[in-house]
Amino acid sequence: MEKVNLTSSFTLLGFSDFHYNHAVLFSAILAIYTLTWAANFLLLSSIKLSQQLHTPMYFFLGNLSVVDITFSTVTVPKLLSSILHGSTSISFLGCFLQMYFFVFLGTTEIFLLSVMAFDRYLAICIPLNYILLMNDKVMVILVCTSWVAASLHSLLHTYILSHLTYCGDKLIHHFFCDVTPLIKLSCSSTSLAELLIFTEGSMVVIIPFLFILISYVLIGWAIMKMETKSSRSKAFSSCSSHLMVICLFYVTDIFIYFRPPSDYSSRYDRIISMAYTIITPMLNPFIYSLRNRDVKEALKNLFMQCFS
């Protein structure tokens, strides 16, 4: 069996083993991808141009929009190509670069969601000291730490997987280079890679999740102690969008990466993966804008400036 090296290539199966209408699926995914760019770009423009959105919460939201745009761009163009041409080839270097950026951006989103939960905790539970505690320096440190830590995490996993031996037909049963399909494809020992996923990889997901959970337990307790119904409603409203995004992200993430290996199914994984690589990045800006009066007002002002 021929081993994979730097000059070799993999083949992404994509959805070539599914029976579907290529034109309809291609058009739908292209429309969603275009909408993802447009919605996140509009949100970024609103945050940049509207003075009332120059607050910590929207600074973090702007970073989340950057992640959503780039996260979908890592996988969608190759997916569109596979729909048009069937299974597609990807070089060894291209495959691991794609995996690096996929893991990097997905992990960055996890960390940013945690940072946003911490921001909501300070705003609701310690409102008098919020501006002092969440100042510009703290905001930049939290965001930079999220990006750098996610990059190091992804680099570690990419390094380990890129040094495995890959033999045989080199057919990846996915529409992008993901961790699990590459481990399944390896013909060398994968014990170190699997151990890394279930230890360090699990910690990267579970610890932020527990941090978010604790933050919202404290937030919920603080909201319950508020005297007026309007105060409770306003406080909950400022958290509801963030909670929806967290649920959307973690449900698919846990389904894909935290289940017994015996339950692995490449067909179902490809379908579910479309939810968090294509659908979620499109929905996030709508969740935040449609449920937020300040964002809707900023978007209205932006359109008025553009068409006046």
Give an overview in words.
The protein is mostly helical and 308 residues long. The chain has a single domain, classed as Rhodopsin 7-helix transmembrane proteins (Rhopdopsin 7-helix transmembrane proteins, Up-down Bundle), CATH 1.20.1070. It is 76% helix and 3% strand. The protein is built from ten helices and three strands. The chain has helices at residues 22-49, 56-85, 92-125, 130-133, 136-162, 179-185, 191-224, 229-257, 266-290, 293-307; strands at residues 9-12, 88-91, 171-172. A three-stranded mixed sheet has the order 2-1-3. The protein is globular, with a radius of gyration of 21 Å. The termini are far apart. The mean pLDDT is 85.
Set out the fold topology.
Blueprint: E1 9-12, H1 22-49, H2 56-85, E2 88-91, H3 92-125, H4 130-133, H5 136-162, E3 171-172, H6 179-185, H7 191-224, H8 229-257, H9 266-290, H10 293-307
Parallel strand pairs: 1-3
Antiparallel strand pairs: 1-2
Helix pairs in contact: 1-2, 1-9, 1-10, 2-3, 2-9, 3-5, 3-7, 3-8, 5-7, 7-8, 8-9
